[in-house]
Amino acid sequence: MYGELQKKLGIYIHIPFCRTKCAYCDFYSFIPKSEGIYERYTDAVIAHMEAYREAARDRLPDSVYIGGGTPTAMPIEQLLRIVRAVKKNFKLSKNTEFTVEVNPKTADAKTFRALRRAGVNRISIGLQSADAAELKALTRTHSRVDFEECFMDARAAKIQNISVDLMFGIPNQTTQTLLSSIDYVTRLHPDHISLYDLKIEEGTPLARIASRLVLPDEDTEFEMYTNAIRMLEKRGYKQYEISNFARPGKMSRHNLKYWNCEEYLGFGPGAYSYFNSTRFSFVRSIEAYIKGVADPQSRVNLTVGLEEISGRAQLGEYIMLGLRLNEGISISEVSRRYGVDFASLYGKKADKYIKYGYMVCKGDRVYLTPSGMFISNYILSDLLSFEDLGALSPAGRF
Question: 319 to each of 137, 262, 315, 338, 340, how far by Cα in Å?
Fold first, then answer.
C-alpha cells in the first residue's frame, strides 16, 4: 500500500493552550480555566482527524507539526493521545519529520522521553532571546537557565533534531545583544535556528503600549539581520529561507511545504489547510470548534475562509512563497506549472530590483539577496498584482 501512495502531505495540529500569554502573541491561544477542557479538546482533535482519514488515504504524510500556543502546556497524557492518533489515522512515511513545539518552562527529560517513544523526533524550543531584559520585555516566563536545562533534557532523551527560535527587533535590543544570543545558542549546537522579526500586532498588549516602547529603527534592524546571517553562516547554519537557518540535512521539511506550495492539513481552532487546491481554516474558538466537530449538523460554521486557489492566484502564491527561499524560484518551473513566461509578466518590475542588488536572476533561477529579503514584502507587493495575490497578501516585513 505504501508504494502506491505518492502524493506527500503535511499535518499541522494547533494546541491553543498556554500557561501565560506573551504580550506580542496574536495566535489563537488562551489560559484554560478548568482541567476538563484538555480532554474535551483532545477528543475533538482526534475525532476531526478520523473524519479526514478517508479524504487523505491516498496521501503519504512525511511531516507532522504540533504547534501552539504551547503543546506541552497540556497534560502529557493528552498530548500523547494526539501523537498516537496521528499515527493511527494517517499512513505516515517511514522517515516522517514529527515536530512538537516546546516552551522551556513546560517540558523536562521525562516529557521528552515520552514524546520520543511515541514517535516525535524533532523539538522546537522557543527561546526568543538569551538576554534577561529582552525576555522580560517580551513577557516570557523562562530564563536562559530554564532554556539550557530544557535543551539538555531533550538531548539526553535522544532527540536528534532540535530547533531554537530567536527574535530581533525586541524593545531595547541592540545588534550586540542579538549576536550574543546567537553566540550562546550556537555553542549548544542545535540543528536548526529560526530568527523572526518581532512585529507589534494589533490587539496585543505590546500594541497598547507601542508609543512607550524603545524599538530598534529600520536601519538598526537591517544591521541586526545582516550581521546575524553572517554569524550563523560562520557557525555552520546555512540560510535557506528568510527567517530560517539549518545545519546540513536539517531544514524544516514541514515549513518547506508551505513555501513550496505543497499540501497540508491543519486541525484545531484557527488552523489552516491547503488541500485539493483549496485553502480553508477552522473557526478561532475552542468551544465552537469542539461543538462543530462533535455535531457536523450543528449551526456552527466550523470551516471558514474556504477558497479554491487556481490559475493566476496559484502562480502568485508560487512566486510569493518561493521567493522566501534562498534558492528562489525556477523560471522553467513557472512555465511548466502555469504555462506563462516569467520575464514577460514580471521582468520589467524585477529589473529595477536586480539593478539595485535586491534580486538576482542567474541561469534558471530568480532569488532575493539578503537586502531583498529584508524588504521582501515590499518587493512582492510591488511585483505581484492583486489578481496574483488572491487571498494571500504580504503582512509585515517578514
Answer: 36, 13, 6, 11, 12
Residue with the larger pLDDT of the pair 263 and 393: 263
- Per-residue pLDDT tens over the stretch 218-231: 999 999 999 999 99
Residues of the chain above pLDDT 90, percent: 88
Let me know: does 221 contact 168? Beta carbons within 8 Å: yes
Residue 69: asked if its preceding bond is cis (omega within 30°), the reply is yes
- Give the Cα separation of 257 and 251 in Å (integer): 11
Query: 177 near 131, Cβ under 8 Å?
Result: yes
Whole-angstrom Cα distance, residue 16 to residue 270?
A: 9
Q: How many C-alpha atoms does 385 have within 13 Å on its Cβ side?
A: 7
Could you report the per-residue pLDDT of 333-378, keeping only the tens digit for each? 999 989 999 999 999 999 999 999 999 999 999 999 999 999 998 9
| DSSP β-bridge partners for residue 69 | none
68 near 17, Cβ under 8 Å?
A: yes
Do 258 and 264 meet the contact criterion of CB atoms below 8 Å apart?
Answer: yes
Sheet holding 365-368, edge to edge: 329-330, 365-368, 359-362
Query: DSSP class of residue 53?
Result: T
Q: Is the dihedral of CA 375, 376, 379, 382 positive or negative?
A: negative
